[in-house]
Amino acid sequence: MSLQLAKDRLEEKGFLDIDIDPTLDLKEEIFRLKKEKNAIILAHYYQEGDIQDIADFIGDSLQLSQKAAATDADIILFAGVHFMAETAKILSPEKKVLLPDLHAGCSLADSCPADQFEQFKKAHPGAVVVAYVNCTAELKTLTDICCTSSNAVHVINSIEKDTPIIFAPDKNLGKYLIRKTGRDLILWNGTCMVHEIFSYEKIHKLKIRHPEAKLIAHPECEPELLEKADFIGSTSALLNYTKQNHTHTFIVATEPGIIHQMKKASPEKTFIPAPPQNNCACNECPHMKRNTLEKVWLSLKYELPEITLDEEVISKARTCIDRMLEISKKAGL
Ligand code: 13P
Ligand code: SF4
User: What is the pLDDT of residue 89?
Assistant: First the structure.
């Protein structure tokens, strides 16, 4: 297929929709293309196991942005969601950044349109804006300091006491930070569709059935769930906890993609995904799961879909990410 035809097909759907020869060894092909094109694949822990297995680096949002800033590859293929690929582009504007499916969005990023946020910001003059990295590049242009779940406490603590702080877009992470830092944050009303779906009743029953099990949770979960958790942390912190803790059973209250690495690291332990309220797979992030091995291969082959951003947006959005990376470095993260 010609590149132009591939571009036209991509325009329609946001991903390349092309029949692939079923006899093709996709993993081998992906390894060959990576080498040929000097490409690196960065994957978030919520990706399907097959994608994690072909990635050069798997990590949480902070680790992935640190990798994107440091790589000398010519192409970064981001197996994650749109805001992550945008962050990689902001940090490495000279590189080609690919996202296998342009529709891989994020409910948190969607909950905070930049124009509405600008009005919110105007209503709180003098406040420092801290935005969770799960937001659009445009929102980052209105942000003073970015943060991820692994450095958010350090970021809030870096701001002078008595300075008002707006925190967007995740109100659950915001409430967690209020408890952890004792600061009074002005919260935007956004949530992650995955982390608010867990059933407390079903988790309670699981705890009765497995009294020894530790409940581990991501801070994007609702406060009622976090109150009951034995450990709260970013995806990488949750993974490390399961490696180091001697308990054998863990109830995992985050997107279950992370369990792939937990099982690999501790095959003798049992990991139970925290169940959602309905009998559905809605604890899986529908955005993260838009990426497939087939789309990764097509994306590398055609070097599409590519993330492009306005130069002005890149330079304005970069400041808040650089501040976050500086604070993380000082904190040894
Ligand atoms: P971390 O991997 O940084 O904990 O973020 C989780 C998440 O929701 C990514 O979308
Ligand atoms: Fe966004 Fe939630 Fe999916 Fe993470 S898990 S990408 S926060 S919708």
Answer: 97
